[in-house]
């Protein structure tokens, strides 16, 4: 079906070929009366974006499989503007998981109002810690990429596009909630797999956005994790449960 077809997008905009990452002036040409013709890339001679005729569910499945073509379609050829809300929701999911684990370890069943307020404050604290950790992770990535590929991050728009790609690629954190709801003996293993999946998605987002090889994004993610773990160690030295 054509439910994913971006009809509202102007033909004069700057698009990307999902196969070779080459620039294109249009995704399709509308001959009216329901006749559409997908544009052909001048560089690779393949359709600029085959996903404009795909159902959104198929696009989502391809994105979950971390296909570069699906990432290019989402980042360059659509007007998705949910990265901010998605980031907040993912952080809430992560904060809830940490808060739940903290409550399980406390084993305090006192119904006193003061205890309930303290537990509510713990949730806000976990949200703040998760936010700071993710911010430090992103800062580590930006510093590494800016240092190693300064030509790729020349202006403010480059940084914004990369930030948007990173925020969108953290969608895997939404799996934290069902992993806890369907609690079983392998929950810690599931949480570890979700973490790995999010990192793989981050790597693919960096690679697609900046058109890099496979090694450099992982190098940036490695330094991002170092900075994130440094923040965790700082909180632990302060005596906070993270």
Automatic annotation (TrEMBL):
<feature type="transmembrane region" description="Helical">
    <location>
        <begin position="126"/>
        <end position="147"/>
    </location>
</feature>
<keyword id="KW-0443">Lipid metabolism</keyword>
<dbReference type="GO" id="GO:0097036">
    <property type="term" value="P:regulation of plasma membrane sterol distribution"/>
</dbReference>
<keyword id="KW-0813">Transport</keyword>
<feature type="transmembrane region" description="Helical">
    <location>
        <begin position="215"/>
        <end position="235"/>
    </location>
</feature>
<dbReference type="GO" id="GO:0005789">
    <property type="term" value="C:endoplasmic reticulum membrane"/>
</dbReference>
<dbReference type="Pfam" id="PF04161">
    <property type="entry name" value="Arv1"/>
</dbReference>
<keyword id="KW-0472">Membrane</keyword>
<dbReference type="GO" id="GO:0006665">
    <property type="term" value="P:sphingolipid metabolic process"/>
</dbReference>
<feature type="transmembrane region" description="Helical">
    <location>
        <begin position="189"/>
        <end position="209"/>
    </location>
</feature>
<protein>
    <recommendedName>
        <fullName>Protein ARV</fullName>
    </recommendedName>
</protein>
<keyword id="KW-0812">Transmembrane</keyword>
<dbReference type="GO" id="GO:0032541">
    <property type="term" value="C:cortical endoplasmic reticulum"/>
</dbReference>
<dbReference type="GO" id="GO:0032366">
    <property type="term" value="P:intracellular sterol transport"/>
</dbReference>
<dbReference type="GO" id="GO:0005794">
    <property type="term" value="C:Golgi apparatus"/>
</dbReference>
<keyword id="KW-0256">Endoplasmic reticulum</keyword>
<keyword id="KW-1133">Transmembrane helix</keyword>
<dbReference type="InterPro" id="IPR007290">
    <property type="entry name" value="Arv1"/>
</dbReference>
<comment type="function">
    <text>Mediator of sterol homeostasis involved in sterol uptake, trafficking and distribution into membranes.</text>
</comment>
<comment type="similarity">
    <text>Belongs to the ARV1 family.</text>
</comment>
<dbReference type="GO" id="GO:0016125">
    <property type="term" value="P:sterol metabolic process"/>
</dbReference>
<feature type="transmembrane region" description="Helical">
    <location>
        <begin position="159"/>
        <end position="182"/>
    </location>
</feature>
<keyword id="KW-0445">Lipid transport</keyword>
